[in-house]
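Issue 218. Parser rejects a valid record. Input:
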Amino acid sequence: ARHVEVFPNAVDPALFRAYSNHSGLREPNCVFLGALRPWHGVDAVAEGWRLLGREAPSLLVVGDGPGRTALEAVGAKVIGAVPHREVPALLASASIGLAPYAADAPGYFSPLKLFEYLAAGLAVVAGAIEGVREVVGHEHVVLASPGDPVALAEAVRTLAADEPMRARLGSAGRELVAAHHTWERRARRILALSYRLQPAIAQ
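Output the parser choked on:
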């Protein structure tokens, strides 16, 4: 192939617009969205919460899987899988989104939860895997070493204590996805590439 283009996941910001104001939250709290599989960094979250101890914010887990027991053991509220239409309101109940990933996570994947956290205006702690670093920088999220519970705990501790930082990251994340990472933009790019290919296909 002379040209290869990879399309990351994206989000429909309109689904989250009505829920993206977190100013009414009385204290910082966290959310993890997704299947509780090892490469999603569930063990790092559980160990991070043990390290935080009494400093740990409340943690809502939306999803299910093998990591459920470890998360419940550190006080997480695990509600299991829900219909996607319920996700925006659940994210609005939190102020910090977690996407830590594991040190041995797959070499590349594009985390849908990252885009939804950003659209919801959450301050995000994300493992610095390739698919994350390609779309966000330190001005949008707090990047941490994948699978590192110490780094995760420190990032959560910092965000929990700094409301202006949470607000700044939340605003920057919403602006980023609205400008660059919507499904409409992805579709327009795919169409543009397909039109460019038409003469070559005709030959």
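Fixed in the parser; the record now loads. The mean pLDDT is 92.
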